[in-house]
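Lab channel / #folding
Pinned by the channel admin:
"Please post every new chain as: sequence first, then the structure tokens as a reply. Keep commentary short and put observations after the output so the thread stays searchable."

First post following the new format, from NK:
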Amino acid sequence: MPQARYFELSDARREGFFNISEAAEASGVSTKMIRHYEEIGLVPKAGRTVAGYRIYRDADVHVLRFIRRSRDLGFTMKEIAGLLGLWQNKRRASADVKKLASKHIAELDARIAELQGMRRTLEHLVHCCHGDDRPDCPILDDLAGAGRA
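Reply from TO:
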């Protein structure tokens, strides 16, 4: 990002820059997360006005939208960094992108299977519980016994 240290905020706005709140609204990423992404190096440090306010270009907002969509699909920060690199490299092979996405699908499938197993177990325990005024409860008994060797 070009240095914007010579801009007053009003001049930056006239030049088409966004302040952090506007960038957050336009991208759907909170200001807190924008700062976090800068801290971890996922996005470059923002330009600044003379007063030190962060300013962003349309291209920066586009990158933030890319990150948000990637997060919505469950990619990790490390995977998003890889995807950003691939997206920004116009000479990349689409096979590299497909490989990363396919790996993510396999991880999602494993997590879904794990969650379905949890659901089946809980469903069985709920079925076994009388749900009455008695203190005995197979759900609590199972939870208490789960840590035993």
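NK: The first strand starts at residue 18 and ends at 19.
TO: also worth noting, Confidence is low (pLDDT under 50) at residues 1-5.
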